[in-house]
Amino acid sequence: MQKQTISAKNKTAKHQSQPAILAHKAAPKNGLKQTLSPEADLPSPIVIDESIFKEKTRAEIALNSISDAVICTDIDCNIDYLNIAAEKITGWSREEAHGLPINQVFNIIHSSTRKPAFSPISLVLQTNKPRVLAADTLLIKRDGTEI
Fold first, then answer.
1. Phi/psi at 138 (5° precision)
2. Dihedral sign of CA atoms 130, 134, 140, 146 in order
3. What digits encode the pLDDT tens for the residues 36-81?
4. Do 7 and 132 form a contact (C-beta atoms < 8 A)?
């Protein structure tokens, strides 16, 4: 059986919805730079939002174009992203899986004992290093089929 490597990206949910910039002050008409706060020299929030949108779109295109399954979770191991390959392998759509615990979508068992296998996801999040699944690990898809 081929070795499978799992890696994950984590995000802290509490910082996702906070704006990057709270205020922007235009330069004075006389051309001299006037700094009242750290935010005064930063671009407007609209420019940053457009930039983030473009980067997010580019990342999704890249992740969806690869054949490896990519599942991203928050720090609590709840799913916040699946690429197309992960949707096909798990049987869960991105929308259906969003917010669910990783173990519900990435349901793995030992093929010989049929008992739940240790999920390396928490170790990946703690160490930020890829982990290898045991050779006798099976994934149970949403419809109950095993791969």
1. -120, 145
2. positive
3. 445 555 556 666 788 888 998 999 999 999 999 999 999 899 999 9
4. no
